[in-house]
Design a protein that fits this description.
Length: 455
Amino acid sequence: MKTIIEPFRIKSVEPIRMTTREEREDLIKAANYNLFDLRSEDVIIDFLTDSGTSAMSASQWAGVMQGDESYAGSPSYHRFEAAVKDLMPFEHVIPTHQGRAAERILMEVVASPGDVIPSNTHFDTTRANVESTGAEAVDLVIEAGRDPQRIHPFKGNIDTEKLETLLSERGDDVPLVMLTVTNNSGGGQPVSMSNIKAAKACCEAHNTPLYLDACRFAENAYFIKKREDGYADVPIPDIVREMFSYADGMTMSAKKDALVNIGGWLAMNDDTWAMHARNQLILTEGFPTYGGLAGRDLEAIALGLKEIVDEDYLEYRIASTRYLGTALTEMGVPIVRPVGGHAVYVDARALLPHIPPLEYPGQSLAVALYLTGGIRGCEIGSVMFGRQSDGGETPAAMELVRLAIPRRVYTQSHVDYVIEVFEDVYERRDELRGYTITEEPPQLRHFTCHFEPLG
Ligand code: F0G
């Protein structure tokens, strides 16, 4: 059959509150045109993030009741540890309350001023955690990964020549190399197995550990299966095991590919680093057998890790993201191509060429989608990245709006509705106007700044 169905039935539902355009005009104005300032019950389709927004399965909810809340040595920790090690056989598995806590602890342990940490593209929290130690975060994604329209099967790959040069010139300053799978900041694009292997070879030659920022590891494995020679018949769990066999450690946000609403971990083989990491963990997260989590959270992760590598799930997951991306492309809406795993990234600069970057075309599109259909996406452009440390402003490299799709939450008719909203916005694209920022904090302004429409 060519129809790929959601491989689940719905047992429990959350109502969506319908709003009218008139109501949304008042709501967005009251939020100073900042979508982060809306109440989620005033949103019809929430594509702000795929992080922590997954629907858990009946078996995960049953697992929640099995959670053992002992302070130390809980069986829930042991089930969590076994589930992680089944796919990612690292010596030490250290639970944290979410991905950035794992990043913070890892960077605290390994990085210091003068160091440099390369990645394909660091996610913002990873970059911020590297920089807060005084080290430098460097992005070395391949050229194709910087061009929204360029088709390449593995646009998340790291440029191994640049990596080799960096390690040859400054190897002593590089405590570890990171690889983000899939590459979220580059459009949710996958990294190939041969690239992971080549990065590992490069690291090994310089005695440098390789760590995976593995939030979306299962989606990455599915792309390897579909796009890379030799993997068509390999089961997903085996592809995952091979990916991690080249790594010396990982950071993880369980809010993505562990199908839970909170959680994460740090895993590694190095005994000394692990000892320091556990000491850090105790300071701010908790005892090493629960990190910042409840026993019930650890149970839900253990079960989520089994469900995420199910091939029927992954086929549906990637097909549903592609379904939205393909419809937008056919309509003429420019998007980052090929479509990534967890989100569709609309190229607002190409869609709205009449709005200059510093009048925020991405913000304009994001607000138009909310007004027209109650859809909430996320600007990833000059609002997020345009402000410089000297207080000035420079346009970002791209003006994107990310439509991130929560796992197992929306059905095809929700996505058909989103497509219809886009048709309306696309028709009226010449009428969309830019925005100005009227109030902003000194850092991370996109979360709280106030806007006003121009013209
Ligand atoms: N690494 C990547 C690649 C991520 O996408 C995220 C989070 C993190 C690390 C941090 O994990 O949120 O659990 O602390 N990404 C979310 C997003 C916020 O919307 O893309 P966290």
